[in-house]
Design goal:
- With about 210 residues, the chain is mainly α.
- Helix content is about 80%, strand content about 0%.
- The chain contains seven helices and no strands.
- Helix 2 runs antiparallel to helix 3.
- The protein is globular and about 50 Å long.
């Protein structure tokens, strides 16, 4: 039984490594879509001046749920087009890898919406989300090429930068965290999606 389990795990990891280029190609439309959603959402929230913790947290949690739902639909469509199983062992492996930091981000976000007393203290939440998301991307990068791991590091460093930003600029408007969310979860995703489109080699089997 243990030998069968070990062989199954090795086969899953081997499949992930063999399909790294395929997964990289599949990420291009996903990152472009989620980046566009994040950029538009951040600009809308900044324009409406949503700065209190509850509205900020609930709004961005909602944006993340919508983005994740649309990304899953895209992945399912890609799987059907390639005549593959959607919830395959490699997909489960990647989902398990990123689930903990994403779950922590969601729980902390919900808790901040209803437990934080300060109305306009959203910077810590932005920092935590960026750091945890960077960790999730870095972990998922074990099964893909190094570009996504580099993106994870960029998100993490952005989170560290957010930790210093309020202290360096005390006169920042309360709605500025929405612009930071737009620039990171929107702009970085969009830029990475465009990068994948322009650097992906054509499929010779097509």
């Amino acid at each position: 039984m243990k030998n069968d389990w070990a062989m199954e795990q090795l086969q899953t990891i081997r499949t992930l490594m063999e399909r790294a280029a395929l997964y990289r190609r599949a990420l291009a439309p996903i990152y472009t879509l989620t980046g566009g959603i994040g950029l538009a959402a951040g600009l809308v929230a900044w324009k409406l001046q949503w700065a209190d913790t509850r509205h900020f947290g609930l709004f961005w949690l909602g944006v993340s749920v919508v983005s994740l739902g649309l990304a899953m639909l895209l992945i399912r469509q890609q799987a059907l087009k390639a005549d593959e199983v959607f919830w395959s062992p490699p997909t489960r492996r990647v989902a398990a890898t990123v689930s903990l930091p994403l779950l922590l981000g969601a729980v902390i976000g919900v808790a901040a919406c209803f437990m934080v007393e300060a109305e306009n203290d959203t910077w810590p939440l932005v920092m935590i989300w960026l750091l945890l998301y960077g960790c999730a991307l870095n972990a998922a990068g074990f099964f893909m090429r190094r570009g996504i791991r580099l993106l994870g590091w960029i998100f993490a460093f952005c989170g560290l930068g957010v930790m210093l930003l309020p202290a360096l600029a005390d006169d920042l408007a309360p709605a500025w965290p929405n612009l930071v969310m737009a620039g990171t979860f929107g702009g970085l995703h969009l830029a990475y999606g465009i990068y994948l489109y322009f650097t992906e080699k054509p499929d010779k089997t097509a």
